[in-house]
Amino acid sequence: MSLPETVSAFEPEVQELSRSYTDAVAAKLEDFLSDKNDEVSSITTSATEIVNAIRDLTRGGKRLRPLFAYWGFLGAGGARDSAEVIQLGAALELFQAAALIHDDIIDNSDTRRGRPSVHKHFEAQHKSLGLSGSAANYGMASAILTGDLCLSLSEELFAAIPSVDAATRTIFNRMRTQVMAGQYLDVLEESAGPAYDPAEAVKRARTIVRYKSAKYSTENPILLGGALARANVELLDSYSAFALPLGEAFQLRDDVLGVFGDPEITGKPAGDDLREGKRTELIAHALLLTSPEEQDFIQNRLGALDLSDAEVQKLSTILQGSGALQETERSISELTVQSLQALGEIQTHDLALAGMKFLSDAVTKRSS
């Protein structure tokens, strides 16, 4: 089943509604974090910097997770100006921010969206204030606490949505567990990867993609929006069939950009994923497609602390020349087609379908 031809006619309205909604989510975050800043100030003004760090981080980004929740909500009959779905979007943004803060610590990543990552921000603060002890340790400790607070604030906002029922709560709880488990699998893979069977590397990489990223980037947000509007099981199942492969395509595109993206657009240094030692599907394909000598080079140098610029370039060349990049692009295309086919099966009104198609394009046709 294909999308109705009338869907394209809704594109201007979809863009306007999406813009209005993300503006409302941003305003909600500003108000909420302003209140939290006052709350922390009543304890000590010295601690307001952790709220400010959250505020700075949540002012950026594409708001994709809230938008998936919004169009899932509208597709299930929710009101387009609902305060509850705005609050859900803000809660999802805080959850995303918490994940990013902790992920940057785990990956030892210096930048996020073209700016210093949160732990590097606090490391710079330590140096500028002339504090004693290790600036790096101070930065990491402060960022861990900031991420923990961000996760707590996400829960606080979500729990305060009046109409959250048991089904919606279950999706939110499950989302958090899946992300933590997926993140751990990613850490485990980076440490144990060289000892694992390369023949299973693609399967392991896809499992990490699904649970660390895809489910909380696309599937769970659209399910949360649908459940908040009391969608039936059939509609929620059709949402999953659309959103999960789309989320996997989204993360695979992110992996490609992590190696081959333009730093001016991605906000990350070229080859950053290679320096961080991420065992993505790109790497998994390369381990199956390269010569023994190239496999040894990947296993021994990927993520090495002293990895040189020349070695980053060599790894990039291997990924491209071996066909690993081509295989990953093929997976992205297959997942995108699967998602679009599932979108055509969703039983909802044309405006919501147009909104979901808009999100599909935003996820798959991107350079950052």
UniProtKB/TrEMBL annotation:
GO terms for molecular function: metal ion binding; prenyltransferase activity. Belongs to the FPP/GGPP synthase family. Pfam families: polyprenyl_synt. It comes from Glutamicibacter soli. It comes from the Bacteria. Keywords: Magnesium, Metal-binding, Transferase. This is Polyprenyl synthetase. Its cofactor is Mg(2+). GO terms for biological process: isoprenoid biosynthetic process.
